[in-house]
């Protein structure tokens, strides 16, 4: 009985979140913005990747960041150095961003800037390999990071994030030679969970793979704006 009741509550929660995510996406579409939801375990390298991404792309695309963390603005402060709008969201005790929190971030962005001026909103989710994948925030694509230090088995043990991802970045590959890890095994495990996901191996330290990542982002922005224009005609 309790179990049925709990399942019903969870379903309602996810349903309400999904409605909010659809609403956020409608706004992004109206403004011609592509939104990417960046997710991983704590410390897999999301903020370093965003730092590199802003440095490389901020003169080509108008970018804003929604920065989710349980507490502090430490990551937001790191990204503000790139002179792009960074909207911090502290989730308190929650281990993920939800669509309502991101709606608040969008509201702040739209209040302070002309939202139609932006091409890309990057959302850095709270570091967690499970919950963020369950809660859409209105993104057009999900990006998951898995660092080589986490182990080959993680896609099999925490499958939801890997099932949901459109792009999987295997990060910190500069560290692979120092670890007892098989990069091909990571890829095989990811493919077992999600055969179609785009996989890019990167190192923020040596810059290996970053050009491929920047190209993937640019392709998503072009593809999405073409779709948005087509639906407006
Ligand atoms: N060697 C190496 N270290 C990296 C790389 N990318 C990130 N790191 C290091 O990993 C640590 C965590 O990086 P962050 O970018 O803060 O990770 P994060 O995913 O944003 O962490 P949370 O926001 O707390 O979940 C830092 O000490 C980074 O310098 C990489 O490609 N190579
Ligand atoms: Mg971070």
Give helix and strand order, one letter per element, not per position. Answer: HEHEHEHEEHHEHEH
Q: What is the CATH-assigned architecture?
A: 3-Layer(aba) Sandwich
Note poorly predicted spans: none
- Kindly name the structural category: alpha/beta
Gap from first CA to last CA: 51 Å
What is the CATH C level class, in words? Alpha Beta
> What is the 3D shape?
globular
Order of strands across the biggest sheet? 3-2-4-1-5-6-7
Average pLDDT: 95
Small molecules (ligands, ions, cofactors) in the structure: guanosine-5'-triphosphate, magnesium ion
Number of strands: 7
Strand content: 15-25%
The tally of structural domains comes to 1
Structure description:
The protein has 233 residues and is of the alpha/beta class. The chain has a single domain (2-232), classed as Rossmann fold (3-Layer(aba) Sandwich), CATH 3.40.50. 46% of the residues lie in helices and 17% in strands. It is built from 8 helices and 7 strands. The chain has a 7-stranded parallel β-sheet with strand order 3-2-4-1-5-6-7, sandwiched between helices. Helix 3 (74-80) links the parallel strand 2 (63-69) and strand 3 (86-90). The radius of gyration is 17 Å and the shape is globular. The model has no long low-confidence stretch (mean pLDDT 95). Residues 40, 42-48, 75, 127, 171-172, 174-175, 203-205 line the site of guanosine-5'-triphosphate (GTP).
SSE arrangement:
Blueprint: H1 2-31, E1 34-39, H2 46-57, E2 63-69, H3 74-80, E3 86-90, H4 99-112, E4 120-124, E5 141-147, H5 154-157, H6 159-164, E6 167-171, H7 183-193, E7 198-201, H8 210-232
Parallel strand pairs: 1-4, 1-5, 2-3, 2-4, 5-6, 6-7
Helix pairs in contact: 1-4
The structure holds guanosine-5'-triphosphate (GTP) and magnesium ion (MG).
């Amino acid at each position: 009985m309790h179990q049925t009741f709990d399942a019903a509550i969870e379903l309602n929660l996810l349903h309400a979140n999904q409605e909010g995510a659809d609403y956020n996406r409608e706004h992004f579409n109206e403004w011609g913005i592509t939104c990417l939801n960046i997710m991983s375990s704590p410390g897999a390298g999301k903020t370093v990747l965003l730092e590199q991404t802003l440095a490389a792309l901020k003169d080509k695309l108008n970018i804003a960041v929604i920065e989710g963390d349980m507490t502090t603005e430490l990551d937001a402060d790191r990204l503000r150095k790139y002179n792009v709008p960074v909207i911090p969201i502290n989730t308190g005790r929650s281990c993920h961003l939800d669509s309502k929190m991101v709606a608040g971030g969008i509201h702040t962005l739209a209040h302070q800037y002309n939202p139609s001026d932006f091409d890309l909103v990057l959302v850095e989710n709270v570091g967690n390999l499970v919950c963020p994948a369950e809660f859409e925030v209105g993104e057009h694509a999900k990006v998951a990071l898995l660092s080589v230090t986490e182990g080959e088995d993680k896609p099999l043990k925490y499958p939801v994030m890997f099932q949901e991802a459109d792009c999987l970045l295997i990060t910190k590959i500069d560290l692979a030679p120092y670890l007892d890890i098989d990069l091909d095994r990571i890829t095989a495990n990811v493919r077992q969970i999600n055969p179609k996901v785009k996989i890019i191996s990167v190192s923020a330290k040596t810059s290996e793979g970053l050009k491929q990542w920047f190209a993937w982002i640019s392709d998503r922005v072009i593809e999405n704006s073409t779709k948005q224009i087509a639906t407006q005609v």
